[in-house]
Every structure is written in structure tokens, then in C-alpha cells.
Amino acid sequence: MQNSHFGRVRRALGRPWRATVFLAAGLPLATIGAVVLLTIGIPPTPAGAVVLLLFSPLLTRIQRDRYRVLYDVEIPPTRHPQGLLARLRSRSTWRPYLYHLLLGPLIGTLGAAVVLGWAAGVAMVTCWMWRYALPLDVRLSENPKLFTLNTVGGVVVLAVLPWASAAVARLDCWAGRNFLGPDRAEVLEKRVEVLAVSRAGVVDAADAERRRIERDLHDGAQQRLVSLAVNLGLALATMPDLPSDARTVIQEAHAEAKAAIEELSLLVRGLHPAVLDDRGLSAALSGIAERSVVPVRLTVTLPQRPPPTVEAVAYFTVSEALANVAKHSKAEQAEVEVRGTGDRLLVRVWDDGVGGADASDGTGLRGLALRAASVDGRLTVRSPQGGPTEIRVELPCVR
Q1: At what angle do helices 2-40 and 46-71 cross, to 10 degrees?
Q2: pTM
Q3: Whole-angstrom distance, CA of residue 335 vs CA of residue 198
Q4: Is the CATH number of domain 275-396 3.30.300.30?
Q5: Which residues on adjacent β-strands are paired with residue 297?
Q6: According to a count of CB atoms within 10 Å of the terminal CB, is the N or C end of the chain lower?
Q7: Domain coordinates in residue numbering, the chain
């Protein structure tokens, strides 16, 4: 416990000196920026601009090393856009120059004041020692109160400087992060790219897991239930002399087995229909249209087969939309159109029902919107009161 207390005290005492060393190391670099600014002039001459363009990357790299080594502040490098014009128009190109020519010299001036303040404070506190180094006649002519005031002033200066050095160091770190590192927009853009890649991986993994579960159920539990139903049916057909009670039990078990097979088939189809993998989106949607209680006119135009994840999203979108038509719309007919155009897949579901569908009300359409958004797709709904209702889904097909 005592060692931990002394460790905290030691770290607290070491922070001002670390900040001062950090600021002192930045003085030569700030001086270079000020000299360059005075040399090239404002606005810069062509020769000065060339010098600035050549030396700014080197100064930026040295500054990043100073932040990392002396203050444990990591400033990642900036990603510049491709092309000369795009690079010249980018904020990431010009922000370092603003730091080197304006903020660096200003912060360097504050850092120089901190360094000189430490030197002046130490000199003021130790002025009584320096007094005895003076000649005797000069020492006798000096007022002792002046030395006492200097000592007190030095103590005050040394007491204030730790906070001042830390404040200037924080200001320097803020300027370095915001002007020598990536722009906040660049950081957010990179984070969005990472999240998009990770989300796509999660969606693909979830789709692959649904496929695996569908195969396991189809090849395992469903086949066992089919075998059980067949055996029970054979027992009823080949054993006519069974007692009536036993026959009733077997008949009920046979009916339950067939009902379980039907429910399991619906579950498997809801996870991931096998026909979607075997024969593609057109055949899978034909099955949905045939099973719909509302007559459906289906049109599928696909120059090439979409990615599996996009196929699954389109399939379940149409399936859920037609289920909503059957439950809520009171429609007499519906249309489903699926069309591939370049790198997009367009899905349109229309019905002549009563309308009034709202994506913000209920979970059905909201679920469709979330399913489309999982692959960077977009869902729009037009459903005025009295109908008709049209659902459009646009899905990217980038492989």
C-alpha cells in the first residue's frame, strides 16, 4: 500500500517534467515553421511554396514521433486521396501546413514561456545562493527583502508551472490530433468501412449457419419423422387384426407424425429453402407464388445470378410481403417483379388491397426494412388509404 502511494506521488511529480521535455522538444520544429513562414511570405512565393510542400511531410513525421516517444500520444498517418487535383482539394493535405505555419509557432511560443518559466523559477528560488557569489560590497548594498521576495515569487512560479505545462501540452496534443492526424470525417469514413465489412461478414455467416441448420434438419430430424410416419402407416395397413384401442393410438401417432413433418417442412423453408440453392431465385419465388392464397403474377428478369446472401434477402422479402398481403390487404390480386440491373437487384411487390400500410407501425414492414438494410439495401413503401400498396426494395449485388 505504501509503495503504491509513493508510486502515485512519483508519477504526479514526473508529469510536469515530462510535459516540459515534450514542449522543449517541439521548440526547434516550431522555429523551423516560423522561419519558413517568414521566408516564403504571405502569400507564399512559388519557390517558398515548393519548399513548404517538400518539407511539410518530413516535419509531420518528426512531430508524430515526438508525440509518440515523449508523450505516448499515437497520431495515425493521414490517408490522402488518389490523384493530384483530389489531393490538392482535400482538407487532409492542407491541415498539416496550418499546424506547421500557424499553430506550431504559437504553441511553440507558449512552450518556450514554460521552459523559461522553469528556469526563472529555479533561479528565483535559489537567489540566496547566488547572493553569496556576489562581491562583498555589492552584496552589502543589496536589500535582503528583495531576495526574499524573489524566493517567494519563485515558489509561486514553480507551483503554477506544473498546471501550465500540462495545459500547454494538452493544447499541443489537441492540435496534433486534429491537424497532423486523420480528419474526423476520414476516421468516421474508415470506421464505416470497417463496420460495413464486419457486418457483411456477420450476415454471410448467419446465412451460412441457416443453410447448415436447414441441411441438418432436412437430412436428420425430417428424415427420421418421415421414416416414423411410413412405419406407422405400414403398421396400420399390414396389421388389420389390431385391437381397436391400439389402432386408434397408432392412427393418432401417424397423424401427429405427418403434422410434425409438415411443421418441420415449413420451419426448414423459413430458415433457408433448399430450392433457392439448387435452382435459384426464380424457381424459389415460383413456389411462393403458387402457395399464395392471393393470385400472384410473377416476373423475374435476372441477367446473372445474385450473390447468395442477396438472393436470401430477396426471397424472404417477397415471402413476408405476400404473407402480409394475404393477412391484411383484402386484395384480389398481387404482382411480384424482380429485375436485375447492373449491380442492383430491384424487387417490387404490388397488391390491389385496401392500403394503409405503414413501415413505422408494426413489426412486419420494419422487419423487411431491417432485412434489406443488412445488405445495404433500401425499402420504400407507398400505400395510400384505399390502396393500392407497392413495396420496392433495392439491393446491391456487389460480389
Answers
A1: 180
A2: 0.49
A3: 35
A4: no
A5: 335
A6: N
A7: 2-182, 187-271, 275-396
